[in-house]
Amino acid sequence: MAKLKVPNTPATRVLNQANISYSVHFYAYEDHGGTSVSARELGVDEHRVIKTLIMEDEQKKPLIVLMHGDREVSTKQLARALNVKFVVPCSPEVALKHSGYLVGGTSPFGTRKSLPVYMESSIRNLPKIYLNGGKRGFLVGLDPQVVIDLLDVTFVEAAI
Fold first, then answer.
1. How far apart are CA 65 and CA 155, in angstroms?
2. Domains of the chain
3. What is the dihedral of CA 96, 135, 112, 156, to 10 degrees?
4. How many Å separate Cα 102 from the centre of its chain?
5. What pLDDT is attached to residue 3?
6. d(CA 121, CA 155)
7. Of 6, 65, 81, 142, which residue is 20 to 30 A from 120 by alpha carbon distance?
8. Residue 74 burial (C-beta neighbours within 10 Å; 0-12, 13-18, 19+)
9. Considering the entire predicted model, what is its pTM?
10. Cα-Cα-Cα-Cα dihedral of 33, 30, 60, 120, to 10°?
11. SS3 of 86, please?
12. Could you say which residues of the chain have pLDDT below 50?
C-alpha cells in the first residue's frame, strides 16, 4: 500500500519541527462546502472538525478564532470577551494577507504573522480534533492540547 505524502505546508513544518504526532486526512475540497463536506468525507462528527477563522477588531487588529464546525461565532459575545467594540470576519483577501493561507485552507499553525488565537473553550474537551493542515482538502488530526500548547490559546465562549 502506498504511503500518503504529507503536504509540505507552513502548518506541517511547525508540527514536524515541534515533533508533534498527527494523523493526515485528505478529502475532495468543495468551494463553500465548509466543515460539513470535510466531516462527511472523513466520516467524522462535524463538531470535531475545527474551523480556523481570521477576524479583526475595530482597530483592524487580526486574530484567529477556532470554532467547532457545526457552530457559528457570536461576534457580539466574542467582542465582549475581548473587550473590544466589535469583531468581524476578514475578507478572503485580508485573511490571506494576515495568515498566508487561502480561505478553505487556513491553519492556525504557521501563519504569516503571529496572531492571537482564541479557542471555543469546549474544544479542549474533545479527545481528537481535525484542523486544516494548510491546504484545501487536507486536515490534520491531533489532540486539542497540542493546539493549546503550541499556540498560547485564550479560551472564549462565543459559540451559537
1. 10
2. 25-156 (3.90.960.10)
3. 80
4. 12
5. 54
6. 5
7. 6
8. middle
9. 0.92
10. 50
11. coil
12. 1-2
Whether the CB-CB separation of 137 and 26 falls below 8 Å is answered with yes
State the DSSP code for 47: G
pLDDT score of 31: 86
Q: How far apart are the C-alpha atoms of 112 and 100, rounded to whole Å?
A: 5
Strands (E) across 9-145 are located at 23-26, 50-57, 62-68, 87-89, 117-120, 129-135, 138-142
pLDDT at 32: 82
Copy the grid coordinates of residue 133. Answer: 493542515
pLDDT tens-digit series, residues 6-25: 889 999 999 999 999 999 99
Cell triple for 45:
462528527
DSSP 6: P
